[in-house]
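Lab channel / #folding
Pinned by the channel admin:
"Please post every new chain as: sequence first, then the structure tokens as a reply. Keep commentary short and put observations after the output so the thread stays searchable."

First post following the new format, from NK:
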Amino acid sequence: MKAMIFAAGLGTRFKPWTDAHPKALAIVNGKSLLQRNIEYLQQFNITDVLVNVHHFAEQIINELKKNNNWGSKITISDETNIVLETGGGLKKASWFFNDEKPFAVINADILTDLDLHEMILFHKKNNPLSTLATTNRETSRYFLFDNNNNLCGWRNVKTNEEKGFVLKFSEEEKKEVAQKAFSGIHIIDPKIFPLITQEGKFSIVDVYLQLSPTEIIKSFDHSNTKLVDVGKPESLIIAEKLFP
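Reply from TO:
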């Protein structure tokens, strides 16, 4: 299996570190987030990995070279000219996933001990277009899943904004909907690429919401595992406690 690590983000919530560095190179107990995710994928025999870069791209490229890619085969997807966000970045990388096999995607700022093998087996058993790792943690924005565990929408609980097929649900149907916090980890079938109609810079969330009325997108709940979204400097403290 191949994988992609999203490492191109500007990391605006992670200042002042990101004024001079990419967030993917932030250090947790002596190892960068990028190194930790490359080594995380290696635990599941995933060593053919594409990393997209934009913000201080040369620092990531130099760090990979200096450390011999930490033992994996790394391909760079260069977004130096324009950051494409998650959807645009994935679309640009479509050429890499040309073996017609499902592939993994993970955000560089996510640390977890999720058993990716279990998630892959779940994906192969259910054969959806995409499987999204989720937990029951509290957040402001949620993916919504119907009583068949299929993606049907998105909700911002602070603004009460909703998107997706859920808007067509009756009030009774809405009561059946489960809110799940997305963990930034996907298993995706390459059949998704011809279905992506957006161009340029866009979020993969918009792609999923557009496709969910006609395509199966599943939740894989891993609420019993360790997970840290290293989105803000203060989350480094939590990460260092959980990931020695």
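NK: The first strand starts at residue 2 and ends at 6.
TO: also worth noting, Residues 116-126 form the longest helix (11 residues).
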